[in-house]
TrEMBL record:
<dbReference type="InterPro" id="IPR037069">
    <property type="entry name" value="AcylCoA_DH/ox_N_sf"/>
</dbReference>
<dbReference type="InterPro" id="IPR009100">
    <property type="entry name" value="AcylCoA_DH/oxidase_NM_dom_sf"/>
</dbReference>
<feature type="domain" description="Acyl-CoA oxidase/dehydrogenase middle">
    <location>
        <begin position="122"/>
        <end position="217"/>
    </location>
</feature>
<protein>
    <submittedName>
        <fullName>Acyl-CoA dehydrogenase</fullName>
    </submittedName>
</protein>
<dbReference type="InterPro" id="IPR006089">
    <property type="entry name" value="Acyl-CoA_DH_CS"/>
</dbReference>
<feature type="domain" description="Acyl-CoA dehydrogenase/oxidase C-terminal">
    <location>
        <begin position="231"/>
        <end position="377"/>
    </location>
</feature>
<dbReference type="InterPro" id="IPR036250">
    <property type="entry name" value="AcylCo_DH-like_C"/>
</dbReference>
<dbReference type="Pfam" id="PF02770">
    <property type="entry name" value="Acyl-CoA_dh_M"/>
</dbReference>
<dbReference type="InterPro" id="IPR009075">
    <property type="entry name" value="AcylCo_DH/oxidase_C"/>
</dbReference>
<keyword id="KW-0285">Flavoprotein</keyword>
<feature type="domain" description="Acyl-CoA dehydrogenase/oxidase N-terminal">
    <location>
        <begin position="6"/>
        <end position="118"/>
    </location>
</feature>
<dbReference type="InterPro" id="IPR013786">
    <property type="entry name" value="AcylCoA_DH/ox_N"/>
</dbReference>
<dbReference type="InterPro" id="IPR006091">
    <property type="entry name" value="Acyl-CoA_Oxase/DH_mid-dom"/>
</dbReference>
<comment type="similarity">
    <text>Belongs to the acyl-CoA dehydrogenase family.</text>
</comment>
<dbReference type="Pfam" id="PF00441">
    <property type="entry name" value="Acyl-CoA_dh_1"/>
</dbReference>
<dbReference type="InterPro" id="IPR046373">
    <property type="entry name" value="Acyl-CoA_Oxase/DH_mid-dom_sf"/>
</dbReference>
<dbReference type="Pfam" id="PF02771">
    <property type="entry name" value="Acyl-CoA_dh_N"/>
</dbReference>
């Protein structure tokens, strides 16, 4: 067993760390406050190859592995989880979905632009009445010869108002249940496709979350991904990899909060000594470090499973379940270690605490991860 990183891994991790500190950090409080989508920074992340990390260079990607991807996600998320969710959705839901299951024309037309950051992508599964229960799709895509007619509503869509390409899941044949579901590539500006208002969120406020409306949108047949009826499997397979990205996001939020708490505890004095010398604080740091490192091992194991071609449904669910719990618990502790300063924006930990919560909700809630894990155990 070899836990060491390769030179290439260290290089990309350091590039992401440097970018996060020099480019993401300066405006992060303001973007959070104003719910400002970091369009210029997304462009720069595209230039650095962060938007298509695992995509084959022949489609404009960086051609790196899933370990590299989680290293980038952790570093970006330490500073700005709103920026990292853009990276996560684009890489592991949109680019991966197209590269693994799209045909050559779709890859040439869309993936080449998504991998370089020329385009941003969105993944549209959730609906007002279909969240955890994603099989209850009310959005319909009716076969009409050379095109499908798409009708329905998607909600909570990350990059919703800022994307060029939307992967949309819809029901084509209700009599076939989830085997009658398809996935489609929908382009911004197709007639009948409307973007609803932006959500005002607790956390990841710099990310752009919208409800989308499809009113008789004509989607060409060649925009269907995979065989007829493949859409639900497409969504589940893609989300499995997405969970590795969100687990890494949670890990980054937790480790970012830990780093701030450690530094603060070595500077702040109370009762004549730095607060890290009080055992109550020192033990919090020990628990944080230990559990964050345990989360990191789960995240790395899931990424390694993906790189090895192993099934990663269970390991990605475990990584997301645990890393998101650690992120939530330890960002609260980081606020506590900062005392009153933890409660104000300037010290960053209150934002990390708010950002942590979403990692227990999207791409499958923690309860859904437990269903995935327990089912896979019982099936064995
Ligand atoms: C900021 C943000 C960004 C998002 N981005 C996207 C995106 O880009 N694309 C997209 O498609 N979706 C996105 N989502 C949607 C997200 O994936 C869903 O919110 C999530 O899957 C939960 O669905 P729901 O909100 O309908 O909750 P519900 O499914 O209604 O769940 C409510 C509660 O019931 C629990 N529950 C439900 N079923 C069970 C069960 N069988 N057993 C035990 N407990 C259960 C849940 O765990 C949860 O605690 C985003 C959401 C948010 C908030």
């Amino acid at each position: 067993m070899d836990f060491s990183l390769t030179e290439e891994h260290i290089m990309i991790r350091d590039a992401a760390r440097d970018f996060a500190r020099t480019e993401l950090l300066p405006g992060v409080i303001e973007r959070d406050e104003k719910q400002h989508f970091p369009a210029e920074l997304v462009k720069k992340m595209g230039d650095l190859g962060f938007l298509g990390i695992m995509v084959d260079p022949k489609y404009g990607g960086s051609g790196m592995d899933a370990i590299s991807y989680v290293l980038v996600m952790e570093e970006l998320s330490k500073i700005d989880a709103s920026a990292s969710v853009i990276v996560s959705v684009n890489n592991s839901l949109v680019c991966y979905g197209l590269e693994a299951y799209g045909n050559e024309e779709q890859k040439q037309k869309y993936l080449t632009k998504l991998a370089t950051g020329e385009f941003v992508g969105a993944f549209c599964l959730s609906e007002p009445e279909a969240g955890s229960d994603a099989t209850s799709q009310a959005t319909t895509a009716i076969d009409n010869g050379d095109h499908y007619v798409l009708n329905g509503t998607k909600n909570w869509i990350t990059n919703g108002g800022r994307s060029d390409v939307y992967l949309v899941i819809a029901q084509t044949d209700r009599s076939k249940g989830h085997r009658g579901i398809n996935a489609f590539i929908v382009e911004k500006g197709m007639p009948g496709f409307e973007i609803g208002p932006k959500e005002d969120k607790l956390g990841i406020r710099g990310s752009d979350t919208h409800t989308l409306q499809f009113n008789d949108v004509k989607v060409p047949k060649e925009n269907r991904i995979g065989e007829d009826g493949f859409g639900f499997k497409f969504a589940m397979k893609t989300l499995s990899g997405g969970r590795i990205g969100i687990a890494a996001q949670a890990l980054g939020i937790a480790s970012g909060a830990y780093e701030l708490a450690l530094k603060y505890s070595k500077e702040r004095k109370a009762f004549g000594t730095e607060i890290c010398n009080h055992q109550a604080i020192a033990f919090k740091l020990a628990d944080m470090y230990t559990e964050i490192d345990a989360a990191r091992h789960l995240v790395m194991k899931a990424a390694w499973d993906k790189d090895q071609g192993n099934n990663y449904d269970r390991s990605s669910a475990m990584a997301k379940l645990y890393a998101s719990k650690v992120a939530m618990e330890h960002t609260v502790e980081a606020v506590q270690i900062h005392g009153g300063n933890g409660f104000v924006k300037e010290y960053h930990v209150e934002r990390l605490m708010r950002d942590a919560k979403i990692t227990q909700i999207y791409e499958g809630t923690s309860e859904i991860q437990k269903i995935v894990i327990s089912r896979s155990l019982i099936k064995e």
